[in-house]
Amino acid sequence: TIQNIRTVFQLTKETHFYDQYSQIIDTIHRSSIKRAHILGILFSLANAAIYFAIAAFLSYGTILFENGTVSFENGFIFPDYGKAIEAAENIFELLNRKPTIDNESKDGLEIVCQ
Q1: Residue 21 domain-assigned?
Q2: Rounded to an integer, what distance in angstroms lies between the CA atom of residue 57 and that of residue 75?
Q3: pLDDT tens sequence across 54-111
Q4: What are phi and psi of 97, to 5 degrees?
Q5: 10 membership: H or E segment, kind and range
Q6: Rounded-to-integer distance, Cα 17 and Cα 24, Å
Q7: Would you state the torsion angle of the CA atoms of residues 9, 14, 20, 25, taken in this order, to the nearest 10 degrees?
Q8: Domain count, the chain
Q9: Would you say residue 112 lies in a domain?
Q10: Does 74 map to a domain?
Q11: Cβ atoms within 10 A of the Cβ of 61, count?
Q12: Which pLDDT score is estimated for 3?
């Protein structure tokens, strides 16, 4: 690379290679700016969708409460209901699990107390 730099310097082509390098860097910079704008918009829309969904659920719940379809007490049951289902799944998973060691096997050494 040192020899190439010396060759460029001897041929007085510094400005030519500088301009070429600048064009490449400018192209990359412009495409990076476009990509950053697109990713910024997509990221903000993805985060906003969560809050829009929360707002929609709250307004739908309010409508259900006003119509009398759902009572106030039932509104508080939903989070606990989801946790109860998850807890039941965890318990059944634990009960259905097969141990890697056979606890009822008589093979192996026995401890003898003297």
Answers
A1: yes
A2: 12
A3: 999 889 988 988 898 888 777 777 778 888 999 999 999 999 988 888 778 888 778 8
A4: -70, 135
A5: helix 2-10
A6: 11
A7: 100
A8: 1
A9: no
A10: no
A11: 14
A12: 64
DSSP string of 50-106, one letter each residue: HHHHHHHHHHHHHHHHHHTSS-HHHHHHHHHHHHHHHHHHHHHHHHHPPPSS-TT--
Instruction: Give Rg (Cα) of the chain.
Output: 34
Using a 10 angstrom Cβ sphere, with 0-12 exposed, 13-18 middle and 19 or more buried, the burial of residue 8 is middle
Orientation angle between helical segments 14-67 and 2-10, nearest 10 degrees:
120
Domain membership of residue 19 as a residue range: 1-47
| pLDDT for res 46 | 95
Q: pLDDT value at position 39?
A: 96
Identify whether 97 is part of a domain. Answer: no
